[in-house]
Amino acid sequence: MDRVTAPGGVRARARVLARADGRGGTSLPVLEGEGPLAVRRTRGSGAEARVMLVGAMSGPLGGDHFTVTAEAAPGARLRVGSAAATLALPGQEKADARYDVRLTAGEGADLRWLPEQLISARGSDLYVGTRVDLAAGARLLLREEQVLGRAGEEPGRLTSRLTVRIDGRCVLDQELACGPGAPGGWDGPAGLAGHRAVGQLVVVRPGFAAEPPAARVLGEGAAVMPLAGPAALVTAVAPDALRLRRLLDGALASLGRD
């Protein structure tokens, strides 16, 4: 679709809907993107459908508002990734930018949200709001990775809120603000402790209801915490994006095979 503009910046939406096809696979009856949010189907694996978000232009810039919606209907298996990191940049508009992610999975569905890193460049101001709604019996693997500034660069301001509901019950609602103007202490010992990469995994598996993972520290910079539901939260901090990914991958492996 064509680029959509509005006063205050670019407005763009992308939508993905996955359904079980009745033959042991997953179909994609809805695959829509506009402006900087292009969506492409890639080669799947088994019953899983795979979709890639492709940045068609720079952004989000100041004043932009992007929204991505991904739904895995009951019994569907959907994996969503991105072709490259998302780079938040300052724009001509002085307003902040906003990136909303809305994820839904029905009963027996498996949804994997695995984009590349979000980089907060100097002078940018971005709010990311991610909301996940899961039916009972749904599975989720969600990864968020945020890098504060490019190499040798001070970060912009980045605020990120993540909310997860399972069968209508909220199991996680947290917000992190970093960079200029963020509440004091975000970079101190009780916050990121000088690190410039922060990430988390949310893992929801029905099997966790009977055998929840134990709370524990994994090496230096990562921790696993069970949530009040069949879910676990992994948080990690690292000096850079590469080491952050290694920490998260190692934490996921420690939770065992799904």
From TrEMBL:
Keywords: Chaperone, Cytoplasm, Nickel insertion. Pfam families: UreD. Its main location: cytoplasm. The keyword Cytoplasm applies. GO terms for cellular component: cytoplasm. One of its GO terms (molecular function) is nickel cation binding. InterPro entries: UreD. It is found in: Cytoplasm. HAMAP family: UreD (MF_01384). Belongs to the UreD family. Required for maturation of urease via the functional incorporation of the urease nickel metallocenter. UreD, UreF and UreG form a complex that acts as a GTP-hydrolysis-dependent molecular chaperone, activating the urease apoprotein by helping to assemble the nickel containing metallocenter of UreC. The UreE protein probably delivers the nickel. This is Urease accessory protein UreD.
